[in-house]
Design a protein that fits this description.
The protein is α+β, with helices and mostly antiparallel strands and 248 residues long. It contains five helices and 14 strands.
């Protein structure tokens, strides 16, 4: 009887040891993996195979929205304080959202980068009324993007009411796009009254608010498993076939 109990005890200890070892191995492998990739790889709604995965998603739901609030220098300081987060001063390009795009603002007359702070996910830019500026966007992803830009409540291309729908502006993979004109002429900062732009999340927006809706291009190629790096593959097949692409 004693030997039987000892056998069962040893078997239990063996199974426990295997379980613990497996958990440690999973933890070790997980820590060795690179950080999660940007959502243009994670979001299953953006899995294309060369065609839109879902028309409603690709037409009306942006992959990400970059929000910019601008005002005169003294006013922008007050807005940052009202935001209630720690500001991070930007020297040129700011990484927006999940890192799909970088964004910077430049004074047209001098070519210098405008003072800006990233705070609470919003880029705060200091600009004087009637100051001409340009927006510079960089695509950090290996996928082409299509964007719609709303400035002061107006679509930068058509001059109609701004929205968060797909626009015809295209940003090639790892490419750069510069905007310094809208449908009416040069992009100029306006006089901003109050703090309404800081709290406005409507698709149209208002004066003092710039919203950039970023979509994966409809003709973007899919990322097949053969293109994945080892650091993008989860251990032991923890994610099913229908999971985001970097885990396939």
């Amino acid at each position: 009887m004693t030997s039987g109990n000892e056998g069962r005890t040893l078997a239990w200890i063996s199974r426990a040891a295997v379980t613990v070892a497996g958990m440690c191995l999973i933890t070790a492998c997980g820590s060795a993996l690179a950080p999660l990739k940007p959502a243009w790889q994670q979001d299953p709604n953006l899995y294309h195979h060369g065609v839109p995965a879902r028309p409603s998603q690709t037409a009306t739901t942006p992959h990400m929205i970059a929000r910019v609030v601008y005002a005169a220098p003294d006013q922008i300081v007050d807005m940052i304080e009202r935001q209630g987060d720690v500001p991070d001063r930007q020297n040129g390009f700011a990484r927006m959202g999940d890192g799909t795009v970088d964004l910077a603002f430049q004074d047209v007359a001098t070519g210098k980068w405008l003072e800006s702070h990233l705070c609470g996910g919003i880029l705060f830019v200091a600009g004087l009324p009637n100051q001409a500026y340009r927006m510079v966007l960089k695509n950090r992803s290996p996928m082409p993007l299509e964007i719609g830009v709303g400035v002061d409540g107006k679509d930068v291309q058509t001059g109609g009411a701004a929205s968060l729908r797909r626009g015809s502006l295209r940003l090639e993979k790892k490419g750069t796009l510069t905007l310094d004109h809208n449908s009416q002429g040069a992009l100029l900062f306006k006089r901003v009254e109050g703090h309404g732009a800081l709290f406005d999340t409507s698709p149209q927006g208002r004066t003092g608010l710039i919203q950039i809706a970023v979509f994966l291009a409809a003709d973007a190629p899919s990322i097949g498993p053969e293109k994945l790096r080892a650091s993008q593959i989860a251990p032991f097949g923890l994610f099913p076939i229908g999971a985001p692409e970097q885990y396939r």
